[in-house]
Amino acid sequence: MARYTGxxxxxxxxxxxxxxxxxxxxxxxxxxxxxxxxxxxxxxxxYGIQLAEKxxxxxxxxxxxxxxxxxxxxxxxxxxxxGEVLLQLLECRLDNIVFRLGIxxxxxxxxxxxxxxxxxxxxxxxxxxxxSVKPGQIIGVRERDKSMEVIVDSLTGxxxxxxSWLEWENSSMSGKxxxxxxxxxxxxxxxxxxxxxxxxx
Length: 201
Description:
Layout: H1 8-15, H2 24-28, H3 46-61, H4 65-77, H5 82-91, H6 94-100, H7 107-115, E1 119-121, E2 124-125, E3 138-141, H8 149-155, E4 166-169, E5 174-177, H9 192-199
């Protein structure tokens, strides 16, 4: 399975946001990485700004370039605003929903849980992180894995009411995907129109 395995704190510092989850390095070094990171930076070009926004979204959701481009093409073919549809397609990924439900502390950890067959969808094991979850489906933890320390620790104290499109059932350690979220419901601050402009050139 292809995934990003490079330095994470460096990427988070580049964008000034905890893209891969909480990162104590950001509080110590709140400037871009590199020899000139703490000095004055050249103004980015329009292309550079668009590219940075695309990279930010790719790293946040843990998607590589080919997957991302294919999702963009699918968004273009769909009805609705392309940038918003792209975000919705990313939000429907199984690894993202496992993260949103609080079963895993980060999307990378969620991807690993899915790949290692700890997650079930409608009672059946699904080990494909990019699996597209449909509204009404139930996502849960495999019965024999419910006592796993990483899962229990992640769920402890997690606020399950913060995402209106997800419903959590604590007794069964499962959540229901109620509906595809609207753009205004998503907490991320992406400027998806810049990505549409980049790919439209």
